[in-house]
Amino acid sequence: MNRKLLYVALGAALSWGLPAISLHAQPASGQDASGSQDTSGDQAKKAKKLETITVTGSLLPQAEIETSAPTVQITAKDIESRGYANVYDVLRSQPLATGQVQDSQYAGGFTQGATTVSLLGLDPGFTLILLNGHPLADYPLLYNGSSNFTDLSSIPVSMIDHIDILPGNQSAIYGSSAIAGVINIILKDRVEGVDVTARMGGYTDGGGENQRLALSFGHSWGKFDLTGALQLEHQSPIWGYDRSYTNSAADNPALNGATPIAPRDVLILNGSTGKYVDPGQAACNNLSNTYGGTLKYAYRPNSGYYCGSLNEPGYTTFMNGSKSASLYLHSKYHLTDNTTLYGDLLYNHNKINLNAGTRFWYSSIGTGGYFLNANTGQFELWQRVFAPEEIGATTNNDSQTSDSVTLTLGARGTFGHSDWDWDTYYFRSQQQVKDKMLWPLASKVEQFFLGQQQGSYYGYPIYAPDTSRLYTPLTPADYRGFSDYDQTTSKTYTQNLNLQITNTSLFSLPAGDVGVAGLLQAGEQYWSNPTDPRVIAGDFWGLTGTQGKGTRRNYAAAAEFHVPIFSMLSANLSGRYDKFNYQGLSDSKATYKLGLEFRPFESLLIRGNYATAFRSPDMGYLFAGPSGYYTSATDYYYCRTQEPGVPIANCSKNSVQISGRTGGNPKLKSITAKSWGYGVVWSPSSDFNIKADYYHIAIKDEVNSLSIDRILQDEANCRIGQSTGGVPYDINSGLCQSEIALVHRNAANAPLNPDGLQAVDTLPINISDETVNGIIASTNWRHDMGRWGELGLGAQYNVLLKHDYRQIAGDPVQNILSLRSYYNGYRQVASANVDWSVGKWSFSVLGTRRGKTYNYAGTGSVGAWTTYNASIGYKFSDMVDLSLISNNVTNKRPPRDNTYSAYPYYNVFNYNSYGRAVWFQAAIHFK
């Protein structure tokens, strides 16, 4: 199947009958590793390098823009004309970005203030994000509470010159993390005069108003060149109540015409009967002014009466409110004809306000919510969701302040009049995040609603509460009286000192010159993610968090050779050795890459590559301290012993709320990977090209924690003595003893829920394997239509043919693509663009089609999601350009899923509910 699809793509590429021309790059001056131009060196040296450029994925300047590995490039013009909102939007819209990710829509997530992408459906941490060719520091907070990744929110879009995306293993050049691929974000290195750009607009469905002011400038004073830029941006939040399909629980598509049931905002549950204690109409009337006056006396079948509002879910932000400022400086000083000093500085400050959903409390969290009510003699659970009117200024209760700095200081030049170039530099990237969240304190909120504890009964606290207190509206002062701010400051940095030497003409072979490049690197990586000690002590009600701190040093050496084997065939061979030292331990890895380029004639390139890669253990996985979270799990032991014969799916303990606990493991080893691919590029004219490439990536020793589900299955097998299939298990074996120790239950003689499941511990280990392969293809065509202007057409396509995953050796391999789970990303993504310029006018349309995904219930699929971005530009004068830009022109909503019964009723990991955005932009250029 793989070969058949690729042959079809290759056949299409070769079926055109246009005249042949060269695939070589247009003449350009020599560039450094980031893509920036270098004017150092004497005239002879400049002439020799006139037709070479440095491309992402190589240390060597090359004469061809197409090499042995496929590269996708997005220019600053593309970003502006195709309606992208920010760097995250640019990259998430690319067909290579098929995987699900968490962003500001994931209410209550660990990294709601950050954005990232998933190339080829792999973990975001497997994609290396570079800025001007250098790896950025990790985001200080952990993705999904466990792993490190790079935040895209700190990169100002107005300062970008272009972005290169290179899929597949690239560790032989860049080291750790370049498994799924590399994204190299190149900032502008030269601006003539002064450019001022102002953009403002918002979303037609409401919310999300945005204003951006960007200033860039450049000038040369003799031997000194300076380029700078400043960007200021303000973003208003988008709330759930801003959209008609996310403003209420009545929007639930799974209702299918049934009467909507309000969320359980205020209730009392009788532990013996499992029914709600009827508060009466009058009690709910006391709270009727909350949620905009929508809270009512509500009823839930088979449970009873309580107080609830259909509008409660809508008080959640899907897009963060933010204010940001960015400063960029790029300078060069031509010290001599052979030596240039250079430096880059990028600083970004971002203040984010958000509301991660409703705040709530229920009684006695340590005993599953139940306490003994001395007034009624019953075990009861009290629950209270705090309305926005009670909390107060909702978007000021959760905030994050992020400051990031990247700095490069270096010098480069030529050894005399030789062919040897050198480049030595210091690079540092750092980020700090201050997190502030107003949250109830356990003892104070308990006392506020229940009064003083009057003892305990078999571990269950005894209270004699005043019921009317639960149904009395709070003031913001009341809420702050039993709450406090959980505040943390987390930091990361990565820094390294580098020496690189390059010779594009080491010696000559009959087919051409042999090029060589070498790199030596020494660096350090730091991660600190503290948690408020009160969180660890359990002082905040129901609040858990990640924590940890660590430093490691790394050393690397790399070399790359370009060898022309004969006139039509050349090879690139690169290798790198990395070593990491931390806590008296070390981890090292050698990687290599071989690329072949076959050019039977100048317009045709047939290419192939094979490479190895690695990802050093995440700082979070290595150094994380004890942390916890809440989740649901199946109590297999109860189901098999108390409800034998009942299918697990129908067991009453199929979904039990428990706490999960985890920590770091300094004995982890590196994840390893191998990739290979081949393809074709045909460019019969400078205005037309077509490409098709096959890729294959196999990952070994992937870090994972044994799933809670797996642990609970093993625990049941061990305690019962055999599996459901009859395989014997010895409870005294090492496996059984270790698995049982990870599971925490109530005492067997507990008066309520004896032997009930409470918590499960996990630990990251190298256990998993993963494989992906697929095909990417693209084509671009430009045509001069004379008086009708210039027309450009383009298309890109990516299809995953295979995505297999195995959690632990011996387990069956799972075909992720056929696994009926809404956690799957896209299998196919395609985009097409039309660009037309005529006279002073320019028009651009980009359409992106994201293929079908599985529905929430796993019983079928939801339709493809196709959106269009467009822009119209008018050159008012040589100084002024005006534009009208729109993202999602047709206001396409996420695909409807009639089985999606959980708010916000669509898959936030694949789609967004932002809708149509419209911006007006004015750009002024001063010479």
Automatic annotation (TrEMBL):
Q: Where is this region: Disordered?
A: 27-47
Q: Which domain of life is it from?
A: Bacteria
* Motif interval(s): TonB box: 52-58
Report membrane topology: Multi-pass membrane protein
User: Could you tell me which residue ranges the TonB-dependent receptor plug domain spans?
Assistant: 66-182
The keyword Oxidoreductase is assigned to this record: no
Record field: compositional bias (Polar residues) = 28-42
Q: Where would you say this protein principally sits, based on its record?
A: membrane
Q: Which key words are in the record? A: Cell outer membrane, Membrane, Receptor, Signal, TonB box, Transmembrane, Transmembrane beta strand, Transport
UniProt subcellular location: Cell outer membrane
Query: Where is the secretion signal located?
Result: 1-25
Similarity remark? Belongs to the TonB-dependent receptor family.
User: What protein am I looking at?
Assistant: TonB-dependent receptor
Q: What organism is this sequence from? A: Dyella lutea
Q: What is the lineage of its organism?
A: Bacteria, Pseudomonadati, Pseudomonadota, Gammaproteobacteria, Lysobacterales
